[in-house]
Amino acid sequence: MTxxxxxxxxxxxxxxxxxxxxxxxxxxxxARLAERGALDFVTLGDGFxxxxxxxxxxxxxxxxxxxxxxxxxxxTTTHTEPFHVQAAxxxxxxxxxxxxxxxxxxxxxxxxxxxxxxxxxxPADALWREAGEVAxxxxxxxxxxxxxxxxxxxATGRFVDRDKLHHVDFSGASxxxxxxxxxxxxxxxxxxxxxxxxxRPARAVAARHADxxxxxxxxxxxxxxxxxxxxxxxxxHGRDPEGLRVLASLEVDLGDGEGAAAPGHGGGGxxxxxxxxxxxxxPVDLAQLVIAWHREGAVDGFHFRPAEPHRDLERLVNGxxxxxxxxxxxxxxxxxxxxxxxxxxxxxxxxxxxxGGTP
Length: 359
Known about the structure:
alpha/beta
């Protein structure tokens, strides 16, 4: 497995967001392009106030037309039923044969709340506490079927071993679930959970529940500080901090080539904007930025957000990623089949099987 000089594996991902697109074809094409570059995963944003097709449905359509790349839709935990959210994400993991993730997000606006009419908008702190409870409940529901619960014995007519199904009986501040799930345990055990930990209210959820944390940082020192904070908090929650990947989330504009970069822009870092940090330059300088930040230990990798979806993703894969691969700093093929394999993450043990039915 290739890595940078730090000895740590480099992880790369990209967003597939195409606001004007309403059909599946362009998303399939973009995911295939990212897969040709052996990127770890692709993300697709979503939200109740956002026009366009549902991210989870789109990536379910992308799944059969791809083979290895991870598929990570945004699914909000606000105004949704936790039981149905976890079942949908588990289904994507089955459809993709173990390549699903879940980008956990919250819905903060009054406009989104009015679409449902059940409650008013709430502060971000409260919504992220709820999101943490949903993430906890989802993990329990994914574990509510032991891996060998399905027996499919046609002779006796038994489909499942009832002793290997477990009631969850989880109560949160705003919801409760009993379980077991209606979907067998996902191929990955737990689909990969991704949280944008840029804003402080989300960091506790990222530290406790995320496998991948995204950080929008304009400087490597800023990213390194958040990474250190997240890893320390994960350890305080009893987690192995080595099980948390922290990626810098960076908008990239590769339209004008290397000459567009400000002096030192490629190696020195992107520029802050109201939308988050933005790199403007060429694929070669971007590769140098990736190498520098990763070598310093600031991040475990990058999540790119192309400014112009088709153009910038093509230049990213055929330019930046190809250069990193040529230098032996990023893999040229997928060594495993699941998203957890790509990220170097172990498959979680079933918390009920390990404790005799009590988590």
